[in-house]
Amino acid sequence: MDPIISISALSKTYASGFSALKGVDLDIRRGEIFALLGPNGAGKTTLISIVCGLVNASSGSVRVDGHDIVRDYRAARALVGLVPQELTTDAFETVWNTVSFTRGLFGKPPDPAYIEQLLKDLSLWAKKDARLMMLSGGMKRRVLIAKALSHEPRILFLDEPTAGVDVELRRDMWQLVRRLRDSGVTVILTTHYIEEAEEMADRIGVIAKGALILVEDKAVLMTKLGGKQLTLQLAAPLAEVPPALARYGLVLGKGGKTLVYRYELGRGEGGEGGEGSDPAGDGAIAGLLQDLAAAGIMFTDLHTTQRSLEEIFVSLVSEREAPGTDERGNRAEAAGEGAR
Fold it and tell me: Which fold has domain 227-306?
């Protein structure tokens, strides 16, 4: 199946000389939820703004469902809805009027039934006659989503959609995004909430310093990079790990009351593990338990934990980010955003 968005060799350098994007190549699959993660100043908003026609690229190309965003601007833009980070709304307008007006901007005929259902889906129906200046921040965020969906786009960009909203509203938005995906809408979101990507995304991209450093299915990413840890609660404390168990790289904890065994997923024999890790992975656990019994070491409980997406993200970005880059990147990208 052809990608619904195809980005090729996309670069953006602002007048200040700051390079916000550096040769980004990315295909977005039709009907998926794609999460784009990256620190402040990494280029997330610049990338989205170019695809949505708000910022001009310095080089490269973008096609939206086969339409070049420069040559076929109207056709491409009609397919896209954008929910920006900023809560920019028409303060003195009502919810109903601002959503209906936005639909008209895309040349869509009036459809009161569609607007009514949209506002109900977003829990805005009771506020349809309220002026936007009277709404809470969370409700204004919902209005931005309604405006983005008013012209029935097939692609929805959500730039930090739950920034500054409470946990309950965040969960409601997650449910809405899933319903949109189930209805055939492709959703691309940027987020600082790693649990948001872990909860919703089908695929994850990580961007740092304007370069896309990883794109992977979420499940595959967690398997390949999500190291695991087995913790054993010992029946009696140990002063040291017996030499016979040295090959497992076990680490004593809590005053000798626990043994910790770390291993990486997706690695076979001969891989490299860090301190307290073993490349053999899950297959070595049975042997470990047998060797513990042979050494007379008894345990009362055991549990496993897996490396979180947040830990994977931090480790990936830290490999690319030099000290001070984030701060400089923030300033430069902010200057570029203001210039547009």
Answer: Alpha-Beta Plaits (3.30.70)
Question: The domain 5-79+154-222+312-339: what is its CATH number?
Answer: 3.40.50.300
SS3 for 265?
coil
* Listed residue (272, 222, 292) closest to 263, CA to CA: 272
pLDDT of 24 reads 95
- The string of pLDDT tens digits covering residues 30-86 is 999 999 988 778 889 899 999 999 999 999 999 999 999 999 999 999 999 998 877
Q: How many helices (H) and strands (E) does the chain have?
A: 11, 15
Tell me the per-residue pLDDT of 172-189, one tens digit each, with 9 for 90 and over.
Answer: 778 888 888 998 999 999
**Residue extents of the structural domains in the chain:** 5-79+154-222+312-339, 227-306
The two tokens of residue 314 are 């931090």
Contacts of 232 (CB under 8 A, 6+ apart): 258, 259, 260, 261, 292, 299, 301, 302
Same CATH topology for 5-79+154-222+312-339 and 227-306: the answer is: no
